[in-house]
């Protein structure tokens, strides 16, 4: 029987995908690239993998997309896999697409939901700029699905059958793309993903010093500050890992407050899981009010300090 | 140096209306435009041209016949010429079909040094086409590029923007580069450029020109079945407070307390 093959360069995501794969009544294999990843084997077996394909090929040491995709194509053949699940990180998403083309396969990237229904893998993803959720099935014989991190809750399967570690037989040429330097981004001190209260700002906040006022509100609520892409990536007022939305972080807080942001869909997809949403904006027609349970139309510089003050005295 | 910029015509996403009974999007009659990241890609091509001089920029787009108008914006921004494909055969292509079409177009164009695309389309943002195109053309790809520099000797240096790191990479041309919004600020073409754009050459190629047939592209060749495409079921209350700030804030706090949104 054809296998399900799982790959992610992040262990936590590989375990999530394995948890789902182990429900498919097919043999499950995982690909572990590099020496560090080889150590994940035991955890992977506990989450449903039956076989682990490992490789310490130095050609793969930088996880260059073209070489990685070729390696996965070769392992797909070796494992006789017909479903390939990949973690949809930025790197994983592009590996999925290049792999799919090598396999002449259909591919769904950034899946935020995955289920098995009537013999088909059914994936959901945002479409039309987040206006809609598209529910899709791949009809090619081989299928590659890249699933967003944290879509599936990783759970050990409990029982472990016989397991096997196999060294993948790879024949790889080095990537023509030369990695000159890798600059790790400064990890922000705030975790917007698991925040209970998230206060987000956008372009409507005019000056960097206004952050103080925003942080005071977040602090009073026991929350953290996040932002839209221009604030972190253009103005650099906040660290890039505080950006909420497409290619940033997803958050499902108990309370979300969007301040001075229009609610463009690139941001909005990141907050759809919020329990209660609040918007503060001077433009009554801003789309954010359509995504808000409660909104105040007006000057954020008057509203935010007042809100903080009243929260403190309540 | 020849730079090819692949661009996607999309509907104006802000104008999409959702049918309240079925949650279906209404797409008919919406204005169209090019996606955001493609404009960054084109802007970069034009800047390279302005800096070096010996550069030709060709814009390529596959889409509805409205492209005949839409493409003028690309020419006004600074593309020297354009190739558009508007035959209905291409309609409903998945990413593989689109990449296949673009690969054939680029092969027909023949000589090129750099192919630029957006990191994803502004509408569906699957990010697949640059990668599939690279595979089909047997080229290296450098994605998520936020800084790009053309070096001596047909080589580029780029800074890739990943979640937790920036990667500085170099590669020989020809290569495929996909770009992010941070790469540059696309210009708004002045009126004179818009007028001049009308005189720049736009070729319209059909399936015969690039040698594709039904079964290779379009809906019939798609590897994806879309079961449904609906607005999320989530409903927000959309209660707005206006007027006196003091009253509005009091009302908001009352509501949040009722919801249990303030208590830990």
Features:
heterodimer, A: 314 residues, alpha/beta, Rossmann fold, 2 domains, five-stranded parallel beta sheet, 26% helix, 28% strand, B: 264 residues, nine-stranded mixed beta sheet, two-stranded antiparallel sheet, 7 helices, globular
Instruction: Characterize the largest beta sheet of chain A: strand count, sense, and whether it forms a barrel.
Output: 7 strands, parallel
Biggest interface found: A-B, 86 and 78 residues
Number of strands of chain B: 15
Q: What kind of assembly state do the chains in view correspond to?
A: heterodimer
Based on Cα principal axes, name the global outline of chain A.
elongated
Draw up the topology in text.
The complex is a heterodimer of chains A (314) and B (264).
Chain A: E1 3-7, H1 11-21, E2 28-33, H2 35-38, H3 41-46, E3 51-55, H4 65-79, E4 81-87, H5 90-102, E5 106-111, E6 113-117, E7 120-127, E8 132-138, E9 143-147, E10 164-167, E11 178-184, E12 197-201, H6 211-220, E13 224-227, H7 229-234, E14 255-259, H8 265-268, E15 276-281, E16 294-297, H9 300-312
Parallel strand pairs in A: 1-2, 1-4, 2-3, 3-10, 4-9, 5-9, 12-13, 12-14, 14-15, 15-16
Antiparallel strand pairs in A: 6-7, 7-8
Chain B: E1 2-7, E2 9-11, E3 17-18, E4 25-26, E5 32-34, H1 36-52, E6 56-62, H2 67-77, E7 81-85, H3 95-109, E8 114-118, H4 129-137, E9 140-151, E10 155-161, E11 165-172, E12 175-179, H5 191-197, E13 202-204, H6 207-210, E14 224-230, E15 239-241, H7 245-259
Parallel strand pairs in B: 1-6, 1-8, 6-7, 7-13, 8-12, 9-12
Antiparallel strand pairs in B: 2-5, 3-4, 9-10, 10-11
Helix pairs in contact in B: 2-5, 3-4
């Amino acid at each position: 029987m054809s296998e399900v093959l799982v790959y992610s360069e992040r262990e936590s995501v590989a375990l999530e995908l394995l948890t789902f794969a182990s429900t498919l009544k097919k043999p499950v294999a995982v690909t572990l690239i590099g020496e560090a990843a080889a150590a994940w084997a035991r955890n992977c077996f506990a989450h449903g993998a039956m076989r682990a394909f490992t490789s310490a090929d130095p050609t793969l040491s930088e996880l260059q997309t073209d070489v990685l995709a070729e390696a996965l194509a070769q392992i797909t053949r070796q494992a006789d896999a017909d479903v390939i699940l990949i973690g949809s990180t930025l790197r994983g998403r592009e590996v999925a697409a290049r792999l799919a083309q090598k396999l002449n396969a259909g591919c769904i990237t950034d899946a935020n939901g995955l289920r098995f229904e009537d013999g088909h893998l059914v994936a959901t993803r945002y479409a039309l700029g987040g206006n809609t959720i598209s529910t899709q099935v791949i009809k090619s014989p081989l299928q590659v699905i890249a699933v967003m991190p944290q879509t599936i809750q990783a759970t050990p399967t409990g029982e472990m059958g016989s397991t096997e570690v196999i060294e993948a037989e790879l024949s790889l040429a080095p990537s023509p793309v030369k990695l000159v330097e890798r600059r790790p981004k400064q990890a922000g001190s705030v975790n917007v993903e698991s925040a209970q209260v998230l206060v987000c700002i956008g372009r409507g906040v005019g000056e960097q010093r206004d952050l103080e006022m925003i942080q005071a509100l977040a602090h009073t609520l026991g929350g953290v500050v996040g932002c839209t892409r221009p604030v972190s990536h253009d103005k650099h007022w906040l660290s890039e890992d505080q950006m909420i939305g497409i290619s940033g972080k997803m958050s499902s807080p108990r309370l979300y407050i969007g301040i001075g942001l229009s609610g463009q869909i690139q941001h909005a997809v990141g907050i759809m899981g919020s329990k209660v949403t609040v918007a503060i904006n001077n433009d009554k027609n801003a789309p954010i009010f359509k995504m808000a349970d409660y909104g105040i139309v007006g000057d954020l510089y008057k509203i935010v300090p007042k809100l903080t003050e009243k929260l403190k005295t309540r | 140096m020849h730079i090819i910029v692949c661009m996607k015509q999309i509907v104006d996403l802000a104008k999409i209306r959702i049918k309240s009974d079925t949650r279906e999007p209404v797409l008919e009659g919406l204005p169209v435009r090019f996606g955001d990241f493609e404009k960054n890609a084109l802007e970069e091509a034009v800047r390279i041209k302005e800096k070096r001089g010996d550069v030709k920029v060709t814009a390529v787009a596959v889409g509805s016949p409205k492209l005949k108008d839409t493409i003028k914006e690309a020419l006004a921004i600074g593309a020297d010429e354009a190739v558009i494909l508007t035959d209905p055969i291409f309609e409903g292509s998945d990413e593989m079909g689109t990449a296949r079409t673009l690969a054939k177009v680029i092969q027909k164009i023949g000589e090129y040094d750099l192919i630029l695309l957006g990191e994803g389309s502004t509408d569906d943002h699957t990010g697949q086409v640059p990668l599939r195109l690279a595979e089909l053309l047997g080229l290296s790809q450098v994605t998520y590029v936020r800084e790009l520099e053309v070096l001596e000797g047909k080589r580029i240096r780029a800074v890739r923007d990943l979640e937790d790191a920036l990667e500085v990479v170099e590669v020989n041309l020809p290569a495929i580069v996909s770009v992010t919004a941070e790469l540059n600020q696309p210009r708004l073409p002045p009126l004179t450029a818009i007028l001049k754009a009308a005189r720049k050459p736009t070729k319209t190629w059909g399936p015969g020109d690039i040698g594709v047939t039904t079964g290779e592209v379009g809906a019939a060749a798609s590897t994806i079945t879309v079961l449904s495409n609906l607005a999320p079921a989530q409903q927000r209350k959309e209660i707005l407070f206006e007027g006196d700030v003091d009253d509005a804030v009091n009302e908001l706090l009352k509501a949040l307390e009722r919801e249990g949104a303030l208590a830990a």
